[in-house]
Amino acid sequence: MNFSLEGRTYVVMGVANKRSIAWGIARSLHEAGARLIFTYANDRFEQPVKDLVSTLDGQDALFYECDVTDDQAVSNTFTKIKEDVGTIHGLAHCIAFANKEDLQGEFVDTSRDGFLLAHNISAYSLVVTAKAAAPLMTEGGGIVTLTYLGGERVVKNYNVMGVAKASLDASMKYLANDLGKHGVRVNAISAGPIRTLSAKGIGDFNSVLKKIEEEAPLRRTITQEEVGDSAYYLLSDLSRGVTGEIIHVDAGYNILGLS
Ligand code: NAD
């Protein structure tokens, strides 16, 4: 079994800063020898992402702006990637957004616009990027997205993002079925809570972290690196028989019932 990703190219979408889960994934793929392509939402992120990537020794990365709410932007991005590198071997989709007011209080108060926004950026974006990226995976490939327990169970304050994650989980499975015949696998990692820019928007996030530290089987929270290494597994041949799966990287918290 070859554990190296040398000679392989992966697209990482969603690095905002060094706390981003996408950055943990980028580092794991880089350590395994992969060439990386980064996409970011708008030009505000360009320099910070380039500065971060410059810390990866010997990484010959490429960078593209790609707002996933814009179909043409997604299509143009993967057309450019095809022109610049030809084949890719995988994609990490680490993108989500909801209005702050929809991540507190009660789900029943979610506005139509807030509901559609969260689903557009956090769930439909996987569909549109998978459609654009899969044809570039001419040697087969893997797509990994990031989900959360709030899509399977009711988690306080997670609200509309939980419902969007349920849509993302189902989209992942339908995509796995569509793209499997082309040798493309699609999986999700359900990460435990990590303090990132996005997580800042979720009401009372500190209490969530504390609860995990007290109750999760491993009695601790998890790190970007741990998610990164599981993404490496899902994007490499190690997981070649796995598709349509949700792997929980959450210190075991999801197995708990009443305590
Ligand atoms: P983050 O804020 O670092 O990353 C979110 C990314 O989404 C940012 O890079 C942002 O620019 C990008 N994004 C938002 N709107 C976009 C758009 N229109 N076009 C392109 N990109 C856009 O936060 P994170 O926690 O690393 O989030 C990454 C993924 O992990 C998300 O799907 C999130 O829901 C998921 N996740 C996070 C946690 C957690 O506790 N942090 C737990 C489970 C799952």
Automatic annotation (TrEMBL):
InterPro entries: Enoyl-ACP_Rdtase_NADH, NAD(P)-bd_dom_sf, SDR_fam. Its EC number is 1.3.1.9. The active site is at Y148, Y158. Keywords: Fatty acid biosynthesis, Fatty acid metabolism, Lipid biosynthesis, Lipid metabolism, NAD, NADP, Oxidoreductase. It holds the Pfam family adh_short_C2. NAD(+) binds at G14, S20, I21, D67, V68, I95, K165, I194, R195, T196, L197, S198. Belongs to the short-chain dehydrogenases/reductases (SDR) family. FabI subfamily. Catalyzes the reduction of a carbon-carbon double bond in an enoyl moiety that is covalently linked to an acyl carrier protein (ACP). Involved in the elongation cycle of fatty acid which are used in the lipid metabolism. This is Enoyl-[acyl-carrier-protein] reductase [NADH]. It comes from Gracilibacillus ureilyticus.
